Amino acid sequence: MTAAVDTRVVRRRLGPGRRIRLAFWVGPVLLLAVWALGSAFGVISPAILTAPWDVLTAFRDQWVEHDLLGNVLASLARAGLGLAFGALAGTVLAVVSGLSRWGESLIDGPIQIKRSVPTLALIPLFIAWFGIGQEMKVVTIALISMIPIYVNTHNGLRGIDGRYAELAETLAIGRGEFVRHVVLPGALPGFLLGLRFAVTSSLLGLVVVEQYNATSGVGHMMTLAEQYGQTDVLVVGLVIYGVFGFLADATVRLTERKVLTWRRTLDG
Amino acid sequence: MAADTGRLTGTPPAVRVRDLYRDFGPGRTVLRGLDLDVAPGEFVALIGRSGTGKSTLLRALAGLDRDVAGHGEVTVPDSVSVVFQDSRLLPWKRILPNVVFGSRAPDAVVRGERALAEVGLAGRERAWPHELSGGEQQRASLARSLVRQPELLLADEPFGALDALTRIRMHALLRRLCETHRPAVLLVTHDVDEAIVLADRVILLDDGVVHTDVRVELPHRSPADPAFAELRAYLLDRLGVHDEDVPAGRRAAA
Ligand SMILES: Nc1ncnc2c1ncn2[C@@H]1O[C@H](COP(=O)(O)OP(=O)(O)OP(=O)(O)O)[C@@H](O)[C@H]1O
Ligand SMILES: [Mg+2]
After folding, report:
1. Span B38-95, pLDDT tens digits
2. Chain A residues close to B88, C-beta within 8 Å
3. I want to staple B134 with a disulfide (CB 3.0 to 4.6 A). Which of A155, A183, A241, B161 is the partner?
4. Residue A7 lies inside a defined structural domain of this protein
């Protein structure tokens, strides 16, 4: 049997092209390789950055002796709770301010003002209001992650083609249905972009709030390590933060690809 | 020709428009004192040169022109469906959910599937809008307006993107559906033949008012019928298309 003839005219591709399998891991693995090789050949001295295997040892030590798992879970709970509140608040505020002129005039201004005040500068105030316990930490993380969610969801929502609203009006549906079937799906790409920023922000917030009187958490572990000059433990903490961020971003991107199949974009 | 108010005198018209004005700024008065009645179940084709305000009138009847200056009296039934010139399917919903979107009937899904089958899209229920061709999208949007069984169907050049054969099939389908559900229909078209084939009445918009209003009373709606050719010639003349504009080859036919 001869192969079927396939002669085509093919245009030069301007988009990024087909997906590479496991492409997501290429960058991080390369980074790890550079680190390992650099340490092995003495290019990176241990005083600058602990070698990966020493970090592994420190990791095992922390895991067995100092309840690393408990610290990781405590941090995840803090970041996750703050992120969840922030995402909810950001979305609700974006929808209200995107759909009503009154809502916009009440909400949008304060949010823009809040944006220009670094949340970290507000921590002393929050400590005065909420004490130095869990509430202050969750509130800070929620506020930090709310902003990118609000800005991007609001932007996505305002970008929805007005003709879809017109269609919805002729179908005589209610506000609730309009929000559920037109506004939220239309603003979803913006929301997910905001979520990616928010995940990073929530980790940033986590690093900072855990330095305040925490009795558990990765930040607490690092504060102790700093006091005792344990560089390897510091690097364990940094790696954990990095893995958090990387995995969270990967999850959001995967979700993005699953729920936005209706889009035909360069992303393919 | 005088405006003809309903065939069954006594029944109130489905659509009643009196002294309608719409203007888009100084010197851009598009509708100026338009009067129109459409009887229940009557199929009216609306023709007119580009920019004469056909879409403006349709949008006024659909209630989509709250920001446009003007005044006048407009009465339409409670349930109105609109077929837009673009198909306006929500890109994030598959075809069937798009077709039944906003329909509160308990058997909406069954009706949606039936409507899709009627417009020749059976089996495409789970496709995304961007996977359909332009004509298929338009047929899906026709299906969407039919599941609602409206009392008034407003359609703005719904068959613009269809090939000749599909167009003829859609004409037959639309006539059949209108005969079963009997909505009043106002259909904008640029195609005089399409207007004569489909409508009970053809009205021509010019200078912001109904300029010509003729009832189509043809035994067979076939272009071969001499009465068809006569009506078409009359309407083309009213549109301002004169004999010298028609290419020599086609003049004999008209
Ligand atoms: N939103 C608007 N702002 C300003 N002018 C408008 C607007 N909508 C319509 N017009 C003007 O009103 C006139 C009538 O427009 P309309 O869309 O009703 O025409 P039409 O008869 O539907 O034309 P076509 O056959 O080309 O679709 C046009 O001159 C158009 O430029
Ligand atoms: Mg138009």
Report:
1. 999 999 999 999 989 999 999 999 999 888 999 999 999 988 999 988 889 999 999 9
2. 163-164, 166-167
3. B161
4. no
A37: alpha, beta or left? (left if phi > 0; alpha if psi -120 to 50): alpha
The residue to mutate among B28, B66, B210, having the most atoms of ligand 1 within 8 angstroms of its beta carbon, is B28
Does some domain include residue A169? yes
- Tell me the C-alpha distance between A185 and B90, whole Å: 10
What CATH number should be reported for the domain holding residue A203? 1.10.3720.10
Rounded Cα distance, B215 and A135, in Å: 76
Taking every pair of C-alpha atoms in chain A, what is the biggest distance, in angstroms?
81
Give the whole-angstrom CA distance, residue B67 versus residue B134.
Answer: 30
Domain annotation covers residue A166: yes
Instruction: Calculate mean pLDDT across residues B172-190.
Output: 88
| A171: containing domain | 50-267
* Residue A27 is assigned to a structural domain of this protein: no
User: Looking at CA atoms only, how far is residue A182 from chain B in angstroms?
Assistant: 8
H-helix or E-strand containing B27? none
Q: What is the pLDDT of residues A17-32, one digit of tens each?
A: 777 777 778 888 898 8
Domain count, chain A: 1
What does pTM read for this prediction?
0.79
Closest ligand 1 atom, CA of B68? 1
- Of the ranges B32-36, B100-104, B242-246, which one carries the lowest mean pLDDT score? B242-246
Question: What stretch of H or E contains B193?
Answer: helix B192-198
Q: Report the C-alpha gap between B135 and B119 in whole angstroms.
A: 11
Supply the ipTM of this predicted assembly: 0.82
The candidate with the shortest Cα–Cα distance to A78, out of A144, A150, A142, A146, is A142
The helix (H) or strand (E) run that includes residue B207 is none
Reading the block at residue B35, the tokens are: 């009067």
What is the Å distance from ligand 2's center to B65 Cα? 14
In this complex, do B90 and A188 lie within 8 Å of one another by their Cβ atoms?
no
Taking CB atoms and an 8 Å limit, are A171 and B102 in contact across chains? yes
Pairing of strands B201-206, B29-38: unpaired
Higher confidence at residue B154 or residue A42? Answer: B154
Q: What is the pLDDT of residue B3?
A: 44
- Is A175 an 8 Å CB contact of chain B? no
Ligand index nearest the alpha carbon of residue B30 = 1
Q: How far, CA to CA in Å, does B185 sit from each of B138, B147, B198?
A: 17, 15, 10
The reported pLDDT for the residue numbered A42 is 86
What residues does each domain of chain B span?
A: 1-79+153-158+183-254
* B1-79+153-158+183-254 placed in CATH 3.40.50.300: yes
